[in-house]
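#struct-pred
JK: can someone run the complex with alpha-D-glucopyranose? inputs below
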Amino acid sequence: MKGKLKRILVIPLMVCILISGGCNMSSTTVTETSSDLSWWQKTIAYEIYVKSFKDSDGDGTGDLNGITSELDHLKELGVGAVWLTPCYVSPQADNGYDIADYYNIDPAYGTMEDMDRLIEEAKKRDIRIIMDLVFNHTSNENEWFKKSRSGKDNPKSDWYIWRDPKPDGSAPTNWRSIFGGSAWEFDETRGQYYLHTFLPEQPDLNWENPEVRAALRDVANFWVKKGVGGFRMDAITYIKKPAEYKDGTPDAEDGMVGIHSMTANTDGILDYLHEFKSSVQDGTDIFTVGEANGVKPSDLDDWTGENGVFDMVFMFGLVNIDLPDETNWCETRDWKLDEFKSFFTDGVKSSEGAGGWFPVFLENHDQSRSIVHFLPEGGDRKARAKALATLLLTMKGTPFIMEGEELGYENVNWPSIDDYDDISTKNHYEFALEEGYSEEEAMEAVHHFSRDSARTPMQWDSTQNAGFTTGTPWLPVYPDYETWNRTSEKEDPDSVLNYYIKLSSLRREHSELIDGDYEEIMHDDESIFAFTRNNGTKKATVLINLTNKEASYDPGTVKDATCILCLEGDADPGALRPYEAVIYEE
Ligand code: GLC
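RT: done, structure tokens with the ligand placed:
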């Protein structure tokens, strides 16, 4: 029996923003001005979990026409790039991250005409659509895989990773897939195993084969021609496998080792990605952001910037901050505020050092909600959400808002594992029980980490099903929707939504929040996350109390500065209420 889920040290905050007068301009070197930046560096990105955003036809599943009908919500938030989770044809074993046809839209989400209209309508509002390219694997129902598994002599036989069994008939290695269980699945027809980093329904493509790489580039170029604004590259650190397939030292009682430690970021991966960049991105104005589990700030020279492979890299240091071992949800670790701060500071600085750009995010569709993940229990929910909003929208980089984050969503805490839909949640729960944790401990981990918390239907209004669908929603609507929804929050001047809208326009009005250099200050302060953004003309100082207690700082930090965002004009230089955040400018 291992340790149980420990309550994480949390960091709450709240917001206010101050000002004072005067302009004490410092003459720090400035790396960019707003006009030097690309469109995607100046904008705000927003992630839509397509299945959960808005249902236009009453089948209980979100769809493309639903998104088109709500583009004005995104426009109001100042969003210029919308990342759609995969909406290609898929049997939905992993909600679309198992693609059966990269060239067509899943009928549940609409048609290619609907997609063309969405791209056009979005463009009219200066919004570009970002497609999710799932290129490490396909669905087992993809024609490519069906051909590959049909025998060893067909032209696509080598498009996936096939290996003979060990002499005793068992799997070629003891690798555990990311979603649990062996990473190998036996196929009767070929008499061989195929590799799947995720589910058995998600066989890994063989990137060693140049035909595979060419086919994937064709897919990407098809979408570039459609006019999309960029790509999020799913699970990209797993595409290159090691030269030898060997057993690893078991890391749990099942005798297996997590595949991540055996295959992530394998030497040679960058060659493939450079090839992709030069044949897809060069000469276009699209951006790429790689989902790069295993890439650290110290690796960024190779991954981002002129000599790198992506414009931005999603690293995992923050979302895994409470996991000593990411294969096991039930062991958590306490962490301190300085580690949280360092994730951002190291990320920004290393991205800059590499000539690249930092994607700022606190949530996505694989993570629990940030006010639960990173803040302590209790305190005012609005204030907590606003505090994190301040961080998200004033940190240097392109902010990525997860659908619902702008409304202040919390985690679902459904009582039984049967209430959950996500396959990864269910598998982690089973794994925990097999490893000797109690049901209560396993459920506590589910409540803390389940991906379903990020996936409940969007809450548009207080009518039935939160205005998401007229049918039966595919995942239950969170019961707090009568208060926490777009329409009610729009009417409440003090709401989380209106705070996001305010911060978004503040970024545009005070461009140092976009193009200013970033410097962290007061690193050792255990309550306040503070930093400056200075573009040589203006300097903003952002101070966020990430605790549930009052906090103080040297008022000289903001001497002669003006509060540009504060609680009703009521800010007291040198003091922050619980969760209070302030922004001063000089
Ligand atoms: C990425 C996606 C996740 C998906 C997995 C397999 O991590 O974000 O949702 O399950 O890849 O494609």
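RT: quick notes.
The pocket of alpha-D-glucopyranose is lined by residues 94, 97, 134, 198, 234-235, 291, 365-366 (CB under 6 Å).
The CA atoms of residues 36 and 445 lie 45 Å apart.
JK: thanks, will look after standup
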